[in-house]
Specification:
15-stranded mixed sheet, three-stranded antiparallel sheet, 30% helix
Length: 429
């Protein structure tokens, strides 16, 4: 299939940082993207637009997550709409239930979860972190169950067929034949990939049969499932293979704008990743104010009594994060995140003026923006891989980043990209 930037594209993600990463990957000179946090306005509005819907389904029961996918699929108007399901590159979340929902109407499904930019590859159908298979790593240390031994295992009862690296890197005909054979048998095609070039080849082959997929016109077509790496490959395909531009793309017009000039930057670190402490320490070395909030207060039973909000100062950086130390026996990670969100909302309500935000961890980001009533975001670019600079309709900057992404200087890089003013420093699209 020749690149068709006029097609509508609907992407669905299970958390907000993944949705932002997807939107940034899809954004190009020929495709404008937006992140939507509620379902009602999520349908792609016009050709050439990519709408990325955060289903907020990572921690839902499997049946509810599947229903959320089915509801999302019903949003686009009839016609030529591509569908991309963004999944976690570490296979966390309701992968099996959501992929089953994608295929329930007879659509062909191609799965390629590799994320080369983060060193996450798929070889022989197994996710690897560098040279270590996922199930031999500690990447699922915070999960209540062990990690799956393979992508096929993560897909549960779905019938799968492996498309090995030899096919992916073979001729275009070889890869196309392998995909068609798997899909013709009603199997989910699971693709090996180690590089962005591998993902480019998979996207090109998966879309080669056009809107109806290998089954022909009138069918739902081929649906893609993968990480932010696959989203970026799809973005390149729709843009005709154009190289990445090192300047910020033109953002859509704003309905209203916040006043220009210095304003506070609030960094909210809700992730439990061990690297977060060092990232915060480096911000403190740069002069940021760090507020470590007691776990007991964040998890209080009375949601109407948030922690006293800290004062914010123009052109200053403030970090809010749970205090280190032994966790209460009955600590609920979700209650902790809700407590952070309430505190952020109370802090911003007390401040007279706009505040820019840096939010780490997908659930933290979603809960904070829900508390603030933000329902739509537009990508500006990326500070580094996964750290996505977005803009609210009224002109505030929001950077989201998965908790597991970024080195020790990640937060420092993000703050430097947003200051002195959000639009005065380049970020990488």
């Amino acid at each position: 299939m020749e690149p068709t930037p006029s097609r509508r594209l609907l992407a669905v993600a299970d958390d907000l940082s993944g949705a932002a990463e997807t939107a940034a990957g899809l954004e190009s000179r020929t495709t404008r993207s937006r992140v939507v946090l509620v379902g009602g306005s999520a349908a792609p509005r016009h050709p050439g637009e990519a709408t990325v819907l955060d289903l907020d389904s990572r921690h839902l029961p499997a049946a509810d997550a599947a229903e959320a996918v089915r509801a999302a699929l019903a949003l686009p108007p009839p016609g030529d709409t591509l569908v991309l399901k963004k999944i976690d590159s570490l296979l966390r979340g309701n992968v099996a239930a959501e992929v089953a929902a994608l295929a329930a109407d007879g659509a062909s499904v191609v799965v390629a979860p590799a994320l080369p930019a983060a060193g996450r590859t798929v070889r022989a159908g197994v996710v690897h972190l560098g040279t270590t298979p996922l199930h031999q790593s500690d990447a699922w240390r915070a999960e209540p169950v062990p990690s799956p031994h393979s992508v096929a295992a993560a897909l549960g009862p779905a019938r799968t067929a492996l498309v090995p690296l030899t096919a992916v890197r073979g001729s275009r005909r070889t890869l196309l034949t392998a995909l068609r054979a798997a899909l013709a048998e009603g199997r989910v095609a699971v693709c090996d990939a180690e590089t962005d070039a591998d993902l480019d080849a998979i996207v090109e082959a998966a879309l080669a049969d056009g809107p109806g997929g290998p089954s022909g016109p009138g069918r739902p077509g081929t649906r893609l499932v993968g990480s932010g790496g696959l989203a970026a490959a799809l973005g390149r395909q729709l843009a005709g293979g154009e190289p990445a531009d090192e300047t910020e793309p033109a953002a859509p017009p704003l309905a209203t704008s916040v006043p220009a000039g210095p304003r506070p930057l609030l960094v909210v670190v809700g992730t439990a990743e061990p690297s977060a402490a060092e990232q915060i320490r480096r911000l403190a070395d740069d002069g940021a104010t760090v507020l470590r909030l007691p776990l007991e207060a964040l998890c209080a039973d009375d949601p109407a009594a948030p922690i006293a909000p800290p004062p914010l100062h123009d052109d200053a950086v403030t970090v809010i994060t749970p205090a280190p130390g032994p966790a209460p026996a009955a600590l609920s990670p979700r209650r902790l995140v809700h407590g952070l969100a309430r505190t952020v909302a109370a802090t911003l309500a007390r401040h007279d003026g706009a505040v820019d935000l840096v939010l780490t961890g997908g659930e933290t980001a979603r809960r904070v923006l829900d508390a603030l009533g933000v329902t739509e975001l537009h990508p500006v670019g990326q500070v580094h891989h996964g750290a996505v600079h977005l803009r609210t309709p009224d002109g505030r900057s929001v950077v989201t980043r998965p908790g597991s992404f970024g080195d020790a200087d990640s937060l420092r890089q993000i703050v430097h990209a947003l200051r002195p003013h959000p639009t005065q420093r380049k970020v990488r699209p």
